[in-house]
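Hi everyone, sorry if this is the wrong subforum. Our group has a chain we'd like a structural model of before ordering constructs, and none of us has done structure prediction before. Sequence below.
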Amino acid sequence: MKKLVVLSGAGMSAESGISTFRDSGGLWEGHDVMEVASPEGFKKNPELVLNFYNLRRKNLLDAHPNLGHNLLADLEKDFDVQIITQNVDDLHERAGSTKVLHLHGELFKVRSTGKDPSSISWQKDLKLGDKCKDGFQLRPDIVWFGEMVPAMDEAIEICKQADIFVIIGTSLVVYPAAGLVNYVPKATAKFIIDPKIPYLSKDIFCIEEGASIGVKKLIEHLKDLQ
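Answer:
Right subforum, don't worry. Here is the predicted structure as tokens:
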């Protein structure tokens, strides 16, 4: 069974009503991203940051996987599918995908601001005063700007093993995730699905569609690669 590796970004979940990470002005839901997605922003105004992610969490509770998520999960019947996602939602998992690596953390998890790196499942509001067992304030388990991406080494190894590599809904401007394509073997079949294709090398097949229609078209091409 061939290994199909998918790198998904915000465009993957846009059809599910999950807002894309930021617009061209560097804003996320009206906030400067550094105010709500950086250690400095959290230190300056932790209540603002916690409330921001509480709203994102509520939004995610009301969201559902779209056809694109469901079709990727169905591909596990014919391929060894590994999803590497930049998204912090759990829509891949809810659709039925069994191998999902989150590069930038997960909305439904929190962790200590102390030294304990372990995550805690969390779906309710997170407030000032909510502490870990060691007495440290809890924070969203999200990789903020300026922080290390703990899952990056694992993601690189997965990309090195890809027989087929698919990029869905990401502008490929956020590093280090954008550099993962450089670790995919040259002989690997490569696809990108996005309404606005970023500049890429000529060896990547482009499908200029949103996630759902794009994955449907991808499946037609994959029939020749099984």
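For your construct planning: The chain is about 30% helix and 20% strand. The CA atoms of residues 88 and 107 lie 5 Å apart.
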